[in-house]
Amino acid sequence: MALTQELMSRMSIQPVAHPPARPPRRRRLARWLGGFLAVALLVPAAAAGVLALLWANAVTNTAGRTVFVRPLAIPPLATSRVEDGRRVFDLRAIEGVSDFGVGDRKTLTWGFNGSYLGPTLRTKRGEQVQINVSNELGETTTVHWHGQHLPAAMDGGPHQMVEPGETWSPHWQIDQPAATTWYHPHLHGSTAAHVHRGLAGMFILDDDRTATLGLPSMYGVDDVPLIVQDRSFDADGQFHDGDPTFSPVGFLGDTILTNGTIGAYHDVTTELVRLRILNGSNARVYDFGMHDDRDFFLIGTDGGLLPAPHATNRVRLSPGERAEIVVRVRAGEHAVLRSYPPELGTDFWNERFAGGDDTFDVLQLRAADSLTSSPAPPERLADAPDLDAADARKTRTFRLGGSNINGKKMDMSRIDEAVEVDTTEIWEVTNPGNTPHNFHVHDVQFAVLEVGGRRPGPELSGWKDTIYVAPGTTARLILRFSDYADPDVPYMFHCHVLRHEDRGMMGQFVVVRKGQRPGRPPAAEHDHQGSGGGLLPDRPPAGAGTSVRR
Fold this sequence. Notes:
Blueprint: H1 2-10, H2 25-57, E1 70-71, E2 81-83, E3 86-98, E4 107-112, E5 121-124, E6 128-135, E7 144-146, E8 166-168, E9 171-173, E10 179-184, H3 191-197, E11 201-206, E12 223-231, E13 255-258, E14 264-270, E15 272-279, E16 286-290, E17 296-301, E18 304-312, E19 315-317, E20 322-328, E21 334-340, H4 348-353, E22 360-372, E23 392-401, E24 404-405, E25 417-420, E26 423-431, E27 437-441, E28 447-451, E29 466-469, E30 473-481, E31 486-494, H5 498-502, E32 506-512, E33 547-549
Parallel strand pairs: 1-14, 3-6, 5-11, 12-15, 14-22, 23-26, 25-32
Antiparallel strand pairs: 2-3, 3-4, 6-8, 6-9, 7-10, 8-33, 10-11, 12-13, 15-20, 16-19, 16-21, 17-18, 17-20, 21-22, 23-24, 26-30, 27-29, 27-31, 28-30, 31-32
């Protein structure tokens, strides 16, 4: 044996290394299955961990953490002039930069007559108004007068586009009660983006009767406009507009801007302060109250004052809705307007990812050490809506689902409904799914007959143009279509969650004279000469404003 090994070594012959014996097939299969099961168990565990992290991070709570360091910006009252019996305003949609105190650079924004938001337009019932809207942006936009009763050609919907370098001049008569309305773009497919960049402003209507009620009325002092929006910023101080993971409603921000101010405070010098609150957010629903749950008076909603003040400690507003509240403060105190987690009425998953668990501090009211006395709101504010369901000529149904209404997406060339002028109708709006929606109707203010089969509470006892429709709920609305008829130029009805609207949850209706058939909407391209042609009982022809290239 020793000799053999020596000979092999001399001949450089190495012994053959035999591979290890393979384990039996059954053992190999067991090992493979074991590895597969380990991975199969790890993947769901990892996914569950990611979901748990997303779930935890889907809640924002700034209550008690907000540092109120900036005085509330008060939008200036727009200047105007009287020409040929009309009060004329000028609005310029422009690009700009705004310093929100976030990030390393100023934020690129859009605004009317300024870098962010717009001035407050203010007119009185009975006035003829004209608004010259000049588009100095690099893209087409529109301006819709949300909450206003006016001819369809002046409404500023998707058909009344204002091209770059052009000026559109709608005009109409203010003929509705005192109210807090607003204006914003309504370009089909781009409304969310244009509003998010900053194009919005308030439009306050006054009347003689309201002026006699003794309500707080010093603009910017004890009568304060509040445009409440949520935004998010990147590290460079720019708006971040991506939709959060799993959000069924689109963009939800983690920072509150009140009139474009982060961490806003307002110095209060009177015992009572009137807050005109506009939910100017793209998707978020707020439930406003005071930090200590004190009661306040809800005195008005979308279409004006309620019949009587409603003492409450919460007011829920979905996108586009407005509320006027009167808050009593104590000398020397710092009271905080807060948004509590809103009851969205959906399942726990959509509740969380639609912002239903979020809390925000919105505004600090800093009361002076000595306050001027304020009279309490009167027991009677305005007449209640006087529409009678027995007078309804027709009942229409609207089903909100996906990005559709009644199974259809918005088509600018299609008229979905035709209603007869000077008639009353009932509209039943149903949300059968789990996604939060609301519903806005152009031109008219409606009264709410029922929500979820029940008569509404005092908070819905006045005129409305936008209403939250919770999942699994039907809202019955009564509307009267008066004054303006135009078979060709439509008004809109739509969800005011702007991503839903942009994706097609919108329809069109025209108001026609008795026996008149709906016509054809203007072409999707901008009609520089306006549409005209509408027949207006007891009114001058509506026209379409004028649109001229600058």
